[in-house]
Specification:
Oligomer: homodimer
Largest sheet of chain A: 8 strands, mixed
Number of domains of chain A: 2
Strand content of chain A: 25-35%
CATH class of the largest domain in chain A: Alpha Beta
Structural class of chain A: alpha+beta
Distance between the termini of chain A: 29 Å
């Protein structure tokens, strides 16, 4: 399982999000990516999923974009007579969000055209290929929105202040008949190289929740997104990764803090844990060791549970496992079958046409959220 | 007044934050800037305020940092035999926060070593020279912290969703004897080229409030930080800037939204407006046109009020005006004198040793906050 996630992560870092590399001419209907900084025209995307880049660096010798499968492991830009570097991916990219960076004369920099997203242990450039189902994370004008707040807490085990991002639903805190409603909580973890901002920014977790609540598909709940202490883990050591430090921070420090400072329902059957990629590894390790804390478990491109690892179908109310169709669907399908056969309430989801990237996980959150706390 | 702010802004953009350019050797006690990305050693700062940069770009022809007053309007880095570009500012920088960027082979990019801060209408690199009074915005472990939340609202006049950042004090929303406390609100504006995130990130507005509240220096209040629609204003047209569009968004849309969705005291004597630089220009224009909305006014490196512009000392309870000692202290001092002579409750503050930059404004917020809503 570790090896599969590792593979998924390596594939992601190589930027191999090509749907296919056909070498034909892209349709000339390019528009600016929605992840661009204000007023920035480039990068652009077309209706087929091709991406086009434009970088000003008149005296540079070489500019390569880490997306696409060109000869140099990316899209090699060409300089025109005005000193502007441009280039288009050789084929369409998968729909959804992709991290990338530029290699300029051998140094790694961000594209000044885009906002920045924390991935690969640093702020990276990002581009969005419009997905057919992008409405699930659309920012709608005519609905009530919750908010995502930056929450500071002290971690004794880390010896320093930590930041968690907390999604609160639109009705949070309102006084009704002299009482304030309490909400269940999903602890939702990012992947390797990401941090507490990733699910909100590139994952659109808040917008997904707002839409689900507005459409009456779920009862409101809180999402807590903490930094999973994963950035120092090296690929060579992922097999030895225990998530013990994060377990201490999460169970002994963050959850008590959240239950003290927010209007939570503070018991196992109102608490879920899920994570993507290495956040799934953390989720599996911690839920198996501390089943008294979480009643709902989710692994998003983050491995699978086996019935013999859990041993007791009554300790978990619902298990969600997912991945992209370009990852390891067989592994998910077999695991879910085995869990069901052993009496677990488990569901699998294969995200069509996506790999180890955020569209897989946005879709996963959208579906999983509808099954939690029931 | 417009001209002075314009000058201040131009000076800022040229990165002229030198305390002095002595040309002597800096003390070799450099440590990583606290604005660096996790695990990044460079940029570094020493105890005298010198900054040192290190950029990997082995095949580049030229790397220039936009900070300091070297021969090329910045600090020109030199390449060593390993292809690493390094350089130190010619003299110490002013204490506090400085935006900067790199010019690599004629193109503008960010330093991959630092977090990004929205300024100059784009995400820029940032560096922090430790200030003698940095405790006022320290992130303390042993106090209660409020939070800053990203709040979405629809603006009919803009025809789209807008984001405001809202600081809520630690006690916000708590139920006491079946009631929830209501709070005054400060509407706090960023400068030209910045946005709704700037006061929280580079201004540390939330930490300043947490510290003031923890130390019993103020009664808690809410701060709303909205995007002031200033980024499309060109320097050539600043003299014609009316802030009319922002007035509509602020008065007709945002304030009603905030008063509906947050526990505010929704009247003039519990509402303040202040802003830095062009946010001060907005504050002056809007408070003078709409004195019925705001009872406390603050201009931070953003011009001055004249008694004959206000005409009535009873329409404003308190006026705060400030700037850095390297800006226009005379203008502030004369204005405050004239306001006082005309019967206004006005105070001025000159930030020692700082220019048109964020340490001036952090200090200003710290002082101004102690005088609001009294």
């Amino acid at each position: 399982m570790m090896k599969r996630i590792l593979l998924g992560m390596v594939v992601l870092f190589m930027g191999s999000s090509f749907a296919c590399a056909q070498g034909r001419q892209p349709k000339e209907d390019f528009v600016s990516s929605i992840m661009n900084q204000p007023g920035q025209e480039y990068p652009m995307v077309n209706s087929e999923g091709y991406a086009r880049f434009r970088i000003m660096a008149p005296d540079a010798q070489s500019v390569i974009v880490s997306l696409g499968l060109g000869g140099s492991g990316g899209t090699v830009l060409s300089k025109d007579k005005d000193g502007v570097w441009t280039g288009t991916t050789e084929g369409p990219l998968d729909p959804g969000f992709h991290y990338y960076h530029l290699t300029i004369d051998g140094g790694v920099f961000n594209d000044p055209g885009t906002h920045n997203y924390f991935g690969s242990c640093r702020w990276e450039s990002g581009i969005e290929i419009p997905a057919p189902d992008k409405d699930i994370y659309a920012c709608r004008e005519n609905i009530a929105h919750g908010n995502i707040q930056e929450t500071l807490f002290y971690s004794p085990s880390q010896g320093k202040m930590q930041t968690a991002m907390v999604y609160l639903p639109p009705t949070y805190g309102k006084l009704e008949n002299g009482k304030q409603e309490r909400f269940p909580v999903l602890y939702l973890q990012h992947g390797w190289g990401e941090n507490e901002t990733s699910w909100g920014k590139q994952g659109h977790a808040g917008l997904i929740m707002d839409n689900l609540i507005a459409d009456g598909k779920i009862q409101p709940f809180i999402i807590v997104m903490a930094y999973g202490l994963t950035n120092n883990v090296k690929f060579g050591t992922i097999g030895q990764f225990t998530a013990k430090e994060f377990e201490t921070l999460l169970i002994d420090e963050l959850i008590p803090f959240i239950d003290q400072h927010f209007l939570t329902k503070a018991d196992k059957w109102n608490r879920a844990m899920a994570g993507l990629s290495m956040g799934g590894v953390e989720t599996k390790l911690i839920t198996l060791r501390r089943p008294e804390v979480f009643g709902y478990w989710g692994l998003l491109s983050g491995g699978q549970y086996a019935p013999e690892e859990i041993k007791d179908p009554t300790i978990v109310k619902y298990i969600f496992e997912s991945c992209g169709s370009k990852e390891n669907p067989d592994g998910i399908n077999k695991s879910v079958e085995a869990l069901k056969a052993a009496g677990y309430n488990a569901e699998g989801f294969i995200s069509e046409g996506t790999a180890h990237e955020f569209l897989t996980w946005r879709r996963s959150l959208y579906l999983m959220a509808q099954k939690l706390f029931k």
